[in-house]
Amino acid sequence: MRRGVTIRLALFIVATLASLVYLAPTFVRSLPPWWTNFLPSDRIHLGLDLQGGSHLVLEVKVDQAIENNVERVKADLTNVLRERGISGVSVERVQGTQLQVKVPAANVERVRGLLKSDFANLTVVNTQTGGGTTEFFLTLSKEEMRSLRDYAVDQSLETIRNRIDQFGVSEPIIQRQGQQDILIQLPGIQDPERAKEIIGKTALLEFKLVDDNVNVEDALKNGPPPGRQILYGYVGKGEGGLGEKTPYVLESRTLMTGEYITDARVRPSSQLQGPYVELILNSTGARLFEQITAANVKRRLAIVLDNRVYSAPVIQERIGGGRASITGSFDIKEARDLAIVLRAGALPAPVEIVEERTVGPSLGQDSIRQGITSFIVGGALVVVFMIAYYKGAGLVAVVAVVFNIFYMLAILAGFQAVLTLPGIAGIVLTIGMAVDANVLINERIREELRAGRAVRSAIEAGYQNALPAILDSNVTTFLSGVILFQFGTGPIKGFAVTLCVGIITTVITAVYLTRIYYDYRIATRRLERISI
Question: How many CA atoms lie within 13 A of 247 on its CB side?
Fold first, then answer.
């Protein structure tokens, strides 16, 4: 028996040393340099309610994503009709998400067959015939609509997560909420406006040709000619951070988009206009960009991001190698933010901030102070009760509770969990549950002692009789915590994490750690009577 006690005691010593290693970065401000090379260096991360930060709810404009998809289907249908040699057919988008296809009577059957074979995701909602033509009114199928809506939200979620990861926020909470909303919590963020700018930027990058044959003043006064559009850029720097607003007349046709970008990097400039952003294209994008520049030498190519012209350089020669650059009188922070959104990818649909809350660091400190106060008060009351009611056995239970909290915090640090105010509530609840387990054990031991059994047999019978009730109550509570974590949101998840971790450490410390103490005293023949 003594050998078994020694092995169990050694295991708890190892667990205690490992806990010290994981908790050292949290409680020791300056660790030696060699520590981070071999040992854990992550602190226990505090949630939004404890260290302050930004809480945002974004609504994904899924209808816009569907309209964009319908526009792409329109272009694909037009191209396929041209490739198949079906002439006289016009394709227009009407009522937002419907396509109107006008077909001469001679080509109706060919177009009908084409739609059935190549565009099965389109549904004919109406057909009109007259004047020698047939009009098909098409819309996306219900399954395609549902798929596009889910894709728009899921892709927006992933894109925003990539942007925030590159922005450098520690332990953000980014999750889907409802049908088309995204919940974002950024603990400890010091510049919420910059974060919102990065998160909400659609980042649709387009390359379009500038039409220098059109007089800009006339276009502003009378409207742009067909197939042309007016977009604005900024030249130089003004007092508000932007320079002089400059109009450009561009061809509406997009020659290339940012879907071919594999990387975007900030590069220093040898001139005075500041850094620029270098784009690195994939093999397909490199070939396409080379063809575009070769066909438009001496013309200006506008680089447009979210309908703003960043630069419109003159193409001096064919550009190969798959590299392009965006200049625009940036400072280093603007260039870095632009590189982030381009590297993380474009949002499939615009997003709008529908809810915003900011938790200041002072409010977070108040929450920590109140949480610690409740923890200390609750713990002190438990200590006083246990020692007053169970004497020496109560003191053993209190030591077990201290180790329980110690191991719990170490597990949170090891798994880099986020500690929130509800999480502190879970820790306080765990203290009560740990004491409850010890109360069951001590009461069973008391009953055995009153029945006249010896100390050793009373302790063995007390633990044996109390263990089923302890396991039953803790297992059911643990399963409730798992359900809360699976289906709950931010604060509920924080509570569930500490609750589940606390239940595991409670069973280990209340049942096995205290049993080691009693078994060791019995094995060394130092336990003649028990103070209980």
Answer: 14
Predicted local confidence at residue 229, as pLDDT: 93
Residue 281: both structure tokens together: 């294209």
> Could you tell me which residues come within 8 angstroms of residue 301 by beta carbon, excluding any fewer than 6 positions away?
207, 208, 209, 210, 255, 292, 293, 312, 313, 315
In this predicted model, what pLDDT tens digit does every residue of 292-329 receive, in sequence order? 899 999 999 988 888 888 888 888 888 888 888 777 66
Residue 167 in contact with residue 340, Cβ under 8 Å? Answer: yes
- Domains of the chain (ranges; CATH) run 2-52+360-523 (1.20.1640.10), 63-142 (3.30.1360), 201-357 (3.30.1360.200)
Instruction: List, for residues 12-22, the tens digit of each pLDDT value.
Output: 889 889 888 88
Residue position matching structure tokens 């819309």 = 139
What integer pLDDT is reported at residue 272 of this predicted model? 53
Q: Which of 200, 192, 152, 141 is nearest to 169 (CA)?
A: 192
The answer to pTM > 0.85 is: no
Look at phi and psi of residue 391 and say left if phi exceeds 0, alpha if psi is from -120 to 50, else beta.
Answer: left
